[in-house]
Known about the structure:
By secondary structure, the chain is α/β, with parallel strands linked by helices. The chain is 35% helix and 15% strand. The radius of gyration is 19 Å and the shape is globular. Mean pLDDT is 78; it is low at 165-176 and 203-220.
Amino acid sequence: MKHGSLFTGIGGFDLAAEWMGWDNVFQCEVDEWCIGRLNKNFPNVKRYKDIKTFNANEYKGKIDILTGGYPCQPFSVAGSQKAKKDDRHLWPYMYERIKEIEPTWIICENVHGHIELGLDEVLLDLANIGYTTMPFIVPATSKGANHNRRRVYIVAYSASNGLNESSPTFSDGETNDHSKKRQNENSDNERCSSLRSTMEWGSQTPWGWGIEPPNIRVDDGLPDRMDRIKGLGNAIVPQVAFEFFKSIAVVNCG
Length: 254
């Protein structure tokens, strides 16, 4: 599988893709501190800085799975929830990149507040370009972390895009285009439904991680680590992404 990430951050989706043995093809991230971490941990991945100017046409039909956690500030209950009126509302730019790349699978991530603010727009946009979607609400505790951190993950699939298109058969009396569209829609619905049945969210974790170290946020040296705290706060939990990736691999093989 070939993976590309938008709003890469410190590379949570990319780390999970690496665990899967997949090929991280490109990343797109604007934050300088995060870019430094990506340069260190993913030195051989093509990198782009600004999603607003990233021309992704060269990747059209070449990416199996595209991921991105577009900024949460327009939707977060911790902010003013201005949605489209917020300058940080960058979903439209991710949508443009999706249309350029036409990946087979898409996973978007955002905060729980997105459910009541903005989620319908994203699902409608994806449906308008032929994707079947299924939102999931997954807490970090599902993978053994000691904080709740509920996040919305939107999984989208289109058999007519990317690298995994199969050659359809056509029934008598149907035009090729109509039959192909119908079969793709049926296939998409089945694959998204199958995805849910393959998810395994356990309370145990093999990762041996320690989440939320017991510091008192006024400890000596903490100001020097604020970029790291910010980077971790904006990141996804890669163990959660790994479960999605494993399920997608199972569905693809099926």
